[in-house]
Amino acid sequence: MIRGHLRIVVLTLLKKQEMTGYQLMKEIKECIGSKPSPGSIYPLLELLHKKKLVKVRKKGRKKLYLLSKKGNNKLLEINKKKKEIMGKVQEGINVLESISNGEEYIFIKSLLEEWEAEKLPLRRLNPELFELREALLLFIKETNQKKIKKIKKILKNASKELKKIHNEKEKRDN
To answer: What is the CATH number of the domain that holds 42?
Structure first.
């Protein structure tokens, strides 16, 4: 987990529902593919409680953590900064697009727009997408044409399979 981002993830998850530290660790693993250690999560929860960003409710021997009003305000502030950053990223992509042929940026722009509108369900696929990204980065400077051809074939087949799954879902929905 990237240092410093655990706080944001915890606050975001606690906005949805109250959770124990253990539930948070499991949910974070599900979301991002790596599970924070108890040595990371519990001191963070204590710090968030001390700063009054979360409340604690005892249920038997368990502590349930929930977002406080102050924590919710902090999350709103973070989301405002996220929007500002996304605006700067969009500006950068627009500049890159204007000085290139633009085709390679169409996909990035559409992904960015979908992500900004929170229409991408990538969170459920995050660990797998991270692994795919890591695998693709191994070949980013690849010059061997046979390998490039193989990679393209794999990606094309994966795309076809994903579209098949999507079409099956649409047929069932109609």
So the answer is: 1.10.10.10
pTM for this prediction: 0.61
Query: If DSSP states are collapsed to H, E and C, what string results for the chain?
Result: CCCCCHHHHHHHHHHHCCECHHHHHHHHHHHHCCCCCHHHHHHHHHHHHHCCCEEEEEECCEEEEEECHHHHHHHHHHHHHHHHHHHHHHHHHHHHHHHCCCHHHHHHHHHHHHHHCCCCCHHHHHHHHHHHHHHHHCCCCCCCHHHHHHHHHHHHHHHHHHHHHHHHHHHHHC
pLDDT in tens, the chain (174 residues): 455 688 988 999 999 999 999 999 999 888 777 789 999 999 999 999 999 999 999 999 999 999 999 999 999 998 898 888 888 887 887 787 777 766 666 777 776 777 666 655 555 566 677 678 777 777 777 778 888 888 889 988 988 888 888 788 667 776
Q: How many domains are there within the chain?
A: 1
